[in-house]
Amino acid sequence: MDSNNISEEFLQSLLSGNRRLSSQIIGNLAVAGLPVEDIYEKIIKKSLYDIGELWESGKISVATEHLASAIVESVLNEMYSGIISKNRNNKTVIVASVENESHQIGIKMVADIFEKHGWNTLFLGANVPTKDLISFMEDIRPDYIALSLSISFNISTFESTVKSILAGNPSMKIIVGGQGLRTGGREVQMKYPNLFYIEDLYNLEVFIKKISC
Ligand code: B12
Prior knowledge:
Strand order of the largest sheet: 2-1-3-4-5
Strand content: 5-15%
Order of helices and strands: HHHHEHEHEHEHEH
CATH architecture of the largest domain: 3-Layer(aba) Sandwich
Bound molecules: cobalamin
Distance between the termini: 33 Å
Structural class: alpha/beta
CATH topology of the largest domain: Rossmann fold
Mean pLDDT: 95
Number of strands: 5
Number of domains: 2
CATH class of the largest domain: Alpha Beta
Shape: globular
């Protein structure tokens, strides 16, 4: 499989707003047995990063970007029934983007990888108010919380979320990822021993295998 060609084909289908073709490209890869992490990382993420560059350089409109995001979200929903594992474990994770963070595609992929490993996965989506996240967490008492941060200028919101979670629940384990932490914020990560930064879905799989026993 030449993932670059397929990713280019998928990118073009998104740019032309062709939901049917986008769904077909991804569906065919799943049927062919390509692992979900490869479909997400090499095809979908790559295309969305390309869309980010086209958007940033003014080559495509906000409308085209919104259309592409909406198609990707529907394609991810179609993947779900093929991803969910029949072997469930007794572990629970809450998965969310931090307050003020509108990006939710990366964290939805994270939720799917937990599902694949049989976790009870509670996906709250984007922009979850910190106080609501904490009261939900206190009701559910999950094994882990997975948070996403795409926008670098939201780092202070991210840190205050971590502080608030740990203030009342010092042993809560938190996983974090997203582009907002790719180039900075390491000092925040170092401060909290229960906070684990994970860059992508391949590393997440390795981590989940370690914590699933
Ligand atoms: C689609 C999109 C949007 C959509 C989001 C729609 C949606 N439903 O999610 C909308 C229109 C809302 C949006 C808004 C904005 N966006 Co925007 N957006 C994008 C775009 C094009 C794609 C995002 C995406 O889904 N990527 C694909 C996913 C799969 O990648 P990912 O998020 O990185 O996730 C992967 C990893 O990071 C990791 N990961 C992510 N989270 C987590 C969590 C855990 C626990 C783990 C383990 C791993 C993990 O796993 C994923 C798989 O590898 C990106 C371009 C880009 N480079 O991504 C810009 C981008 C993220 N946006 C950007 C900006 C600046 C904005 C706006 C500020 C624009 C504006 N002026 O209004 C607003 C911010 C709004 C807000 N308050 O959040 C910048 C961010 C720069 C930065 N790092 O600070 C980017 C990079 C574009 C750019 N090149 O400038 N955006």
